[in-house]
Amino acid sequence: MRALAHTSQGTLRGDPCGEIVVFRGVPYAAAPTGERRWRPAQAAPGWKGVREAIAFGPIPPQHISPERLAKRGLSMSEDCLTLNIWTPAVDDSRRPVLVFLHGGGQTQGHGSAPLLDGSRLARRGDIVVVTINFRLGVLGSLYAPDWHGADSTNLTLRDQIQALRWVREEIGAFGGDPGALTVAGQSSGAIAISALLAGGCDLFDRAILQSGGVERVRSTAAASAVAAQLRALRCAEKPGVADILAAQRKIDTGFVPPQGPFHPCVDGDIIEEHPLVVARTRPMRAIPVLAGTTRDEWRIFDAALDGDVFTERYVQQRAQALAGDAADADAVVATYRADHGSHRDVASAMVTDYHFTAPTEQFVRAHARYGNTVFRYELQWPSPRAGLGACHDSCLPLLFGNLDAAPALAGTGDAARRMSDVVQTLWLEFIRAGEPWDRYDRAGGPTMVLGSECETACDHRAEQLGFWENRYPAYG
């Protein structure tokens, strides 16, 4: 099988793996090191001869043990701006392209995670799959224009834009169609896509948002407060990576659930206004969007807390923290008590809706209101681990088909494989510019429920989701 791809930078040799060719560690930008640390991503330099692309590049700096890195055969470095490509063939075919942005709260994760291996999806769908590494944490989200210049903000998003630009320009050399590019993201990856879409980015043709807490795009004031904490920790001048990671761990994340101090922020440049404000007040790019959440997103995070924490008082405090001081916490809890028995389940359900389901619904409903194509889903497929339900991240093994990479998320048996087949079939239909189910056109409109039965449902929890409609803090 042919494994050479000729790009404008130079020739790459990929790794033939059965029916797929994999190109790993492909540089899409120059190393963001030295004087380029706080600068936007710049074009990667070219090379002469044939460059080997058979090993994953270093992952972005993050908190991960050396033992875990070594076990996976990976390294970690600021020189991390690479991507990985899975293609059925290096030829002149024009296959649809899926670019996937990983999650991890914009502090963790990488495109070489086993869960995100694109082999099965590329082979099954005859598409090209791309995953990306980008700067994380302080290195990707520091809001400090007074320290490093106006274009030093939202470097994670700037990296993602540079990667998408590279894919547009170069993916034809890998059997992909640069005019049929779907960008997908999960969790913080989906939040990034909402920001790019609201900002008018024209480097993708369709978008998939999975479990994106869209409300978590930070205000300028919130981002400035994090920068002030870092300044107090003496992380402003030329610290080493270890110093930056140490300071990052000391940032106050607020009451559970944490406020996400490293998500994108309204910087007046890459993000001029909060994505929810943009969606509600004017049309975004008229592209099709597929978006949704899992039914029990927050349970996997609450599972780390001892059961004794979930008293009636704690549930009330969480309701007040989410809904605001002007709200009636008793009414909030009562809204959820009818459908959820235990204190833990009520507490988790409130966060799931506040941070994930309701803002996603608002974002895509607004997009649909302007006549755009929207498909909405809710994943109800439960984890085999007791108490987790259809938790955060469970969509990943189902989409990529890598069930064995995270057996606790979705299971590994025949039923899980059938569920994965369903998810892949529907997503691939969308990626190929089809209509996988009925369009979502209004609050409570058609939503694909993916569980033991897969069918569209209307008025799907519209009352509970509507409760959070005006509960989010001011954006700016």
Describe this structure in words.
By secondary structure, the chain is α/β, with parallel strands linked by helices. It has one domain (4-309, 338-467): Rossmann fold (3-Layer(aba) Sandwich), CATH 3.40.50. The protein contains 17 helices and 14 strands. Helix 6 packs across helix 9, helix 11 (312-323) runs parallel beside helix 13 (343-369) and helix 12 (329-337) crosses helix 13. The N and C termini lie far apart (53 Å).
Would you kindly provide a brief summary of this structure?
This protein has a single domain (4-309, 338-467), classed as Alpha/Beta hydrolase fold, catalytic domain (Rossmann fold), CATH 3.40.50.1820.
What is the CATH architecture term? 3-Layer(aba) Sandwich
Oligomer: single chain
What is the count of distinct domains?
A: 1
CATH-assigned homologous superfamily = Alpha/Beta hydrolase fold, catalytic domain
Strand order of the biggest β-sheet: 3-4-6-8-7-9-10-11-12-13-14
The end-to-end distance, rounded to whole angstroms, is 53 Å
Largest sheet: 11 strands, mixed
Helix and strand content put the structural class at: alpha/beta
Low-confidence stretches: none
CATH topology: Rossmann fold
Gyration radius (Cα, Å) is 22 Å
Would you count the extended β strands for me?
14
Give the CA-based shape: globular
Organism: Mycolicibacterium chlorophenolicum
Family: Belongs to the type-B carboxylesterase/lipase family.
Enzyme class: hydrolase
Pfam family, one: COesterase
